[in-house]
Amino acid sequence: MKYRSVFDIIGPVMIGPSSSHTAGAARIGRAARSLFGRKPSRVTVTFYGSFAKTYRGHGTDIAIVGGVLDFDTHDRRIVQSLDIARREGVEVVFLESEEIPDHPNTARILLEDEAGSTEVTGISIGGGKMEIVELNGFELRLSGSSPALLIMHHDRYGAIANVAKVLAENRINVGYMQVSRKEKGSMALMIIETDQSVGDEIQNEISRLSEITGVTVLQ
Amino acid sequence: MNFRTVAELVEVAESENLSISEVMIRKEMKDFNKPREEIMRQMAENLDVMEEAIHRGLNEEVASQSGLSGGDAQRIRKYMKEADVLLSGADVLDAVSRSMAVSEINAAMGTIVATPTAGACGILPGCVFTAADRLGSDRETMVRALFVSGAIGYCVANNAFISGAAGGCQAEVGSATAMSAAAVVEMAGGTPSMSAEAVAIALKNMLGLVCDPVAGLVEAPCVKRNAMGGSIAMVAADMAMAGVKSVIPTDEVIGAMFRIGRDMPTSLKETALGGLAATPTGRAEERRIFGKSEK
Description:
Distance between the termini of chain B: 51 Å
Number of domains of chain B: 1
Number of helices of chain B: 13
Oligomer: heterodimer
Order of helices and strands of chain B: HHHHHEHHHHHHHH
Helix content of chain B: 55-70%
Number of domains of chain A: 2
Largest sheet of chain B: none
Shape of chain B: globular
Radius of gyration of chain B: 19 Å
Radius of gyration of chain A: 17 Å
């Protein structure tokens, strides 16, 4: 079941004009921001499919940038996000790809600063719902039927145990877990699907753990 | 308190003697481990946003950046006051003008509630506020109506689709119209089965509708399709309240919508490559709005 809550259907409260091209795009941008963990100095957005054809008219470009600036779907500042980004020194580049994507509304976002970079690919599946399908080259296979925690971390001992401890202390049960890395000792990704919702407090607690570089909760 | 289809939803409701809204509220409480008050409050906030959007659309100067939409909701309101005879009647035009008002606010990048999408955001507020006027409904009845439409939308979204990009306008304005019809039936005191019939009747009249927005913008024809969606929902609700039944069961209509959407060419699914978007005037508008840089 891709849509789980009545508020997936009646909601979100958002700035128009398109739930898939504006609100869903803002949510992809905001998920990318929280995975990066800080404000980037440079953002490169590549649009695919319907996004590539119609992003200007739907404000997909300003919505994604608004999300990267950490604005929610109903934040009026989204309308001014390109100006705000410029004022705050965030360089923004938009690219259109001719490649045929698996899903018509696909965007790839590269966030960079002097300390590093994160690349996130998201799809907007309709009604403001979105899914993150790729993170730093790791393909994500989320069921979409449970809340999911995406945690970027250094590949060191104890990182997984520390996260598990926080979840246990908060009485959150893990339904599915996947850990992957590119090579030994480099960056790794934990994907954890949980039975209970993970609130902001728990998310902050995890992001403060050592070896953790970014945390995103997909409800 | 679980359901995946409209038939299961009606079965749960009628076997336990509950309304559709109550089934949806209890499911939400259970699935997300939230107290009733929190869920009711969140939905009441959505209703407030809808009311504000209607108010703005009917009272403020609304124009989109492209100039393709804005002002029609007020035009209809003015006509309703001044015309000697209203051909389709004041009740229908109330729903139509309110649906349009919210849709115009959306096109102008105002604040709306996606129901189920932004492209179809006018229909549910238009119908719920019009029905509340007619029926003298209290606020809780209106909030409950949003849960009814959410329950129907949940079934449509998980068994078919709710976005124009995925299934054409039938999936977007079509779903919203069906959801709204069901909501209004419960407001009027109809049974869960009657709500389900209203869904089938409304959606059948939206099957095959393509998503072909001019210049790819959620304006033309979207605003007018929201207006007509509002009228179809109200009439479908009346038909269901009268005891009219759909020959094809509701879930099979949703299944038909899914297959039609799947078979629909990409050019008619929000890509602005076909339909009205590809007419000479549609193309001219596109060039006017985006200039020569647009291919």
